[in-house]
Amino acid sequence: MGRMNAAPPDFDVAIAGAGFSGLGMAIRLKQEGTRSFVVLEKAQTVGGTWRDNRYPGAACDIPSNLYSFSFAPNPNWTRLYPPQQEIQAYLEDCASCFGVREHIRFGAALARAAWDDAAHVWRIETRDGRALTARALVSGMGGLHVPNLPDLPGRESFQGESWHSARWRDDVSLAGKRVALIGTGASAVQITPRIAPIVAQLDLYQRTPSWIVPKRDGAVPGWARTLFQRLPFTQEATRRLIYAVNELRAKAFLDPPEKEWIGAKLARAYLARQIADPALREKLTPRYRMGCKRVLISDDYYPALTRANVELIASGARALTPRGVIDGEGVERPADIVIYATGFKPMDLISHVDIRGAGGRSLNEEWANGPSAYLGTMVSGYPNFFTLMGPNSGLGHNSMIYMIESQIAFVMDALRTLDARNAPALDVKAEAQRAFNAEIEAKLKKSVWGTGCTSWYLSPDGKNHTLWPDFTFKFRERTKHVRVEEFEFAQ
Ligand SMILES: Cc1cc2nc3c(=O)[nH]c(=O)nc-3n(C[C@H](O)[C@H](O)[C@H](O)COP(=O)(O)OP(=O)(O)OC[C@H]3O[C@@H](n4cnc5c(N)ncnc54)[C@H](O)[C@@H]3O)c2cc1C
């Protein structure tokens, strides 16, 4: 790749993280077969999100045929929506079948990386003090990776067991216990129906109700799996159909109609069918535009809330005491176990890593108020550095794997462009990055995410640094080829 320096780097490419992003990147490099690469993974296994989120009921809310690599279809998914264990097994298989496992260093957490302006290499250190150099650095460290524990007074004083949904404790039995589940977002909606039949009492602390639509999950019939195995084009056709249907929904998010749209009417009707008690229904009725926060899908959440041992506390949690939780009305409710289903620090992409670009500039300092990038993938001043699932590449309506694969294609094209120009490094121009962000900011203002709700999509500066505000095929078009006029090339 590019011009050779006196001391060649240890690797052409160093990748941090072995989830969908890091593995996908590694597989593409392996398939191309011309570049050396290493994957640094801080944990002991691959999988990322799907290794960490092992809570009861954990599953993807994108159908299995779409939530997988385009180059590695799996005809053996057992359900329409893949459960966590199957996604994890799929990623383990991919790591082995594509021969990338031997490139992964497990237990190697990227601690710092600094761009060496003179040598045109990234100088990388892992937390255990080992050093390496690479021409390009790709972050696959995840966008929803760092658990977000709420700042509730007295949290540390609680004397029972407590944990975050992404750090599930299999060693603690919930049977017969009084459990407080804090949060009613995507994870809580999956956890509630699974633990409600086991626990003595489940108190569910809600801050804001979610819009929920039916999931219509089910087993994939044996004949369909046989069909996918024997005639792979049928699976490809199914995948394309699911993609297209999801993509159609984007219109309602990007350009929300003045009046309530049909999706909201259907969700309200679903709520009315499932919850007979008007008081409970009232508590579960969202008061913001559908889509402004993530729309959830579930077949069994509402029925679980009608159980005698489940109580929805719509005033939320105000504080913790040694014995339980104080709700928003000041009432202390005893609990043996507190589970935080409070999501992640969104876009906390690199706060645990020190990335230094040209001239020693710090990415953490530049991103203090919210991260921004060019095509969610490159940052001006950080040559040959790529972030997969970076700022504004998240989605509210379709599969993240589609976005990740688009970004990987962009990285591959950038590396090929360097080869073709015999250049050691490329850096996106600050002006190109500004123009790109101005364009997406304008789109976000018009979108449903700009309709005034508070959500984890928003950063402390009030801006949405999380979502891609357009159709995903437009992202794919933009990431297909490097627009050389938007870059500076080192010589
Ligand atoms: C509970 C949950 C449900 C989700 N459901 C959906 C869904 O339904 N549909 C959808 O499209 N997306 C969903 N997502 C988003 C999901 O994260 C992405 O689809 C995808 O899994 C992201 O893959 P990734 O490799 O980019 O990140 P991750 O899966 O987060 O992987 C990051 C990897 O980097 C490693 N790492 C982190 N820091 C370091 C470091 N310093 N050094 C070395 N390694 C490091 C981590 O250990 C991890 O293995 C969900 C996310 C969560 C958390």
Describe it:
With 491 residues, the protein is an alpha/beta fold. It is 30% helix and 17% strand. It contains 13 helices and 20 strands. Strands 1, 2, 3, 4, 5, 6, 17 and 18 form an eight-stranded mixed β-sheet that branches. α5 crosses α6 and α11 packs parallel to α13. It is globular and about 70 Å long. The two termini are 13 Å apart. The N terminus is likely disordered. It binds flavin-adenine dinucleotide. The site of flavin-adenine dinucleotide (FAD) has 33 residues, from α1 and β2.
Layout of SSEs?
Blueprint: E1 11-16, H1 20-32, E2 37-41, H2 49-52, H3 84-97, E3 104-106, E4 110-116, E5 121-126, E6 131-139, E7 161-164, E8 178-182, H4 186-195, E9 201-205, E10 212-213, H5 222-230, H6 232-254, H7 262-274, H8 278-283, E11 296-297, H9 301-305, E12 310-313, E13 317-320, E14 324-327, E15 332-334, E16 337-340, E17 354-356, H10 363-366, E18 385-387, H11 400-421, E19 426-428, H12 430-446, H13 472-480, E20 487-489
Parallel strand pairs: 1-2, 1-6, 2-3, 4-17, 6-18, 7-16, 8-9, 8-16, 9-12, 10-11
Antiparallel strand pairs: 4-5, 5-6, 13-14, 14-15, 19-20
Helix pairs in contact: 1-11, 5-6, 11-13
The structure holds flavin-adenine dinucleotide.
Flavin-adenine dinucleotide binds next to helix 1 and strand 2.
Helical coverage, percent range: 25-40%
Question: On the 0-100 scale, what is the average pLDDT?
Answer: 94
Please report the total strand number as a whole number. Answer: 20
By secondary-structure content and strand pairing, the structural class works out as alpha/beta
Shape: globular
β-strand percent reads: 15-25%
End-to-end distance: 13 Å
Q: Kindly provide the radius of gyration, computed on alpha-carbon positions and rounded to a whole number of angstroms.
A: 23 Å
